[in-house]
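Handout, section 4.2: multi-component inputs.
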Amino acid sequence: GAVVSQHPSWVICKSGTSVKIECRSLDFQATTMFWYRQFPKQSLMLMATSNEGSKATYEQGVEKDKFLINHASLTLSTLTVTSAHPEDSSFYICSAPPRAGQPQHFGDGTRLSIL
Amino acid sequence: AQKITQTQPGMFVQEKEAVTLDCTYDTSDQSYGLFWYKQPSSGEMIFLIYQGSYDEQNATEGRYSLNFQKARKSANLVISASQLGDSAMYFCAMREKRGSTLGRLYFGRGTQLTVWP
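Output:
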């Protein structure tokens, strides 16, 4: 079964709304969580790495104030897209580093559409 | 420089035939891992196969095998006996042992595989 749970799976909202996406590790503790963004027919682009109990590390070019990341506990990381605009529409997917001998675990992703 | 290169934007294969998806990588690490993931139109990332840099045998998982050529830095995915359900985007990815972000995967651009009857 799924080891990383991501919610919601899809969101449609008006421009200017803030949207929160949750990523939970189900049966293990994840001190780190990776957040990726994917445009149609393109690869996954790492946006940021969340770290439990400390600030997230953002990749170059990613707006920290636009994409707020919080890793409040060992099982929950959240990505908040603040004041979302149509250009923020994309597929967002989280991933947890693997346990020993396991492949990388991914959430099922969130399709965000901003009208 | 690109860490993972997938040169085939799209591939077509007839059902029951084998197909090879190309992947080359670039790293100075001695210890690294190579992954292949399948992403259907629904979006989830499905793990297919893993090859460690120190593994001497090519990895196999059912109909999937990884043709690992370390000197050439290539890690091609071979899908045997293609099925219609194999139609999807396929990503090659690498995880380096060292580096500032343990566990981070570097992805290629992907190859869209279409299996036709």
